[in-house]
């Protein structure tokens, strides 16, 4: 019996299995031919292409993502990013104009350009058919760093700086949430009273400065059955199963913009803020897998 050619999700694969054919791979999500055609276009927004155009295949009785899909996504990103260059340029111009408008009102602003000193991945655990996601700007389709993530990393970097300078903090290695510097820059909320204080540092999303490219990276977990719950403890007899994922390549420049919006007569210590960014770039890192060296940046002085 010939394999019926249609694209209706699991039904498509049930039909293939009955016919013994598992060589043709299609997106598992039901897509019309018109949508498939638009997504296959080299000008397609990568944030639309990435979660939908993922091919699947049967491995024994299990339905799994095609191993080649990460490479396919990487190749598509190169085509898409060429088209989005002008959009990225306009996004950076809008942010720059906003920062300049704040500066014209007497607000202290900061712009840092830093390039990736190691591979960078933001949103590795985000939902995605491959289970290795990446945060992409919905409108532009390029990787970026959300302002909320930047604030979290900068707060940790500030705490590290405080711990290195304060003898009392050195003893425990813990900087209390009510520390005046942390509250000043990043705000706080009392667990007892519920009283809130907003941070006086305001952050914008960080976007690539101009060019950007992705590459295929790999992680090699050795205890897959233990992590999945099939084994009660890790054993050395398991074979490692390589997992491929996408990262932003080294030497990709990102633009970080923030402003100090004071409360009352509060003043800004520019040197302190610059040191916080330096610690974040070089010691803490942004995104995932920072504990093994990913997400480090080197500031570019222009």
The domain count comes to: 2
- Helix vs. strand class: alpha+beta
Counting DSSP E segments of at least 2 residues, the number of strands comes to 11
CA distance, first residue to last residue: 67 Å
* Percent of residues in helices: 25-40%
Radius of gyration: 23 Å
Number of helices: 10
Coarse shape: globular
Order of helices and strands: HHHEEHHEHHHEEEEEHEEHE
Task: Give a written overview of the molecule.
The chain is α+β, with helices and mostly antiparallel strands and 302 residues long. The chain folds into two domains: 8-83, no CATH class; 85-300, no CATH class. The protein contains ten helices and eleven strands. The protein has helices at residues 10-19, 33-40, 46-52, 69-83, 85-104, 147-165, 167-172, 180-186, 224-228, 270-284; strands at 56-59, 62-65, 108-116, 187-189, 196-198, 201-203, 207-208, 214-219, 243-248, 253-260, 297-300. Strands 3, 6, 7, 10 and 11 form a five-stranded antiparallel β-sheet that branches. Helix 6 packs antiparallel against helix 8 (180-186) and helix 6 (147-165) packs across helix 10 (270-284). Residues 1-24 have low confidence and may be disordered.
Question: How do the strands and helices of this protein lay out in sequence?
Answer:
Blueprint (H helix, E strand, L loop, with lengths): L9 H10 L13 H8 L5 H7 L3 E4 L2 E4 L3 H15 L1 H20 L3 E9 L30 H19 L1 H6 L7 H7 E3 L6 E3 L2 E3 L3 E2 L5 E6 L4 H5 L14 E6 L4 E8 L9 H15 L12 E4 L2
Antiparallel strand pairs: 1-2, 3-10, 3-11, 4-5, 6-10, 7-10, 8-9
